[in-house]
Design brief:
The protein is built from twelve helices and five strands. The chain is mainly alpha-helical.
Length: 239
Amino acid sequence: RDEFLSRVRASGLTRDERVTYEQIRQVYVDHCTVRDRAASLETFLDTRGKHLDPFFCGMRAIEISQSGAIGQYIAHRKRGGGSNASINRELQILGQMFRLAADDEHRLIGRGPVPQIRKLEEPPPRQGVVTEKQFAEILSKLPAWAVAPIKAINITGWRVRAVLSRRKTDVDLERGFLILDRESSKNRTAYKWPLSGDLGDLVRVQVAQIALEERKLRRVIAWLFHRDGRPIPYGTLYD
């Protein structure tokens, strides 16, 4: 990579050679913001970007695509214990950064520097289900703050971030619904889950518990599922 940089600097920088990772990263962030893809942006900022940014920040886009930096990133992530699936998702976002930067709307770079990134082989999807007994055993080993959101995920089948991002204002006790707004939904469709059965019991207990904890903490708790009054990060629950 040092040899590549020396050659680029000695020859003078073209438009493509001036563009940095930070610039194509900003194009991706702006794209998510303009297109109302809050869930995608949250995923990037919470997880994917925490691996991509430290490695690629300070590099030029053309260096990333033409100096073997992507292969070095894969090796770096594998040494750090990253799974093929996680690395693929991260490189998918990196590739999207390049494609957006080169499209007709932005024209930040030409088509030439856009890398062709080959996916790593992933294991087949996991099969089988968790029995009620196994699920009860899992819940018994979780910290108290994690039990309610895990139960809600199990009942609704909603994505983890969709459940963690629910606020008290998403609970309609009068009409009897837990609301998932379209911005948090994977297919951009809003849903209303009836507050009946196990989910109804869970949400009503959660709302009552929040009221007690607000008095104890002497501040408003906005989140339906929280940890000491603060939102639960996806990575924290995942760990």
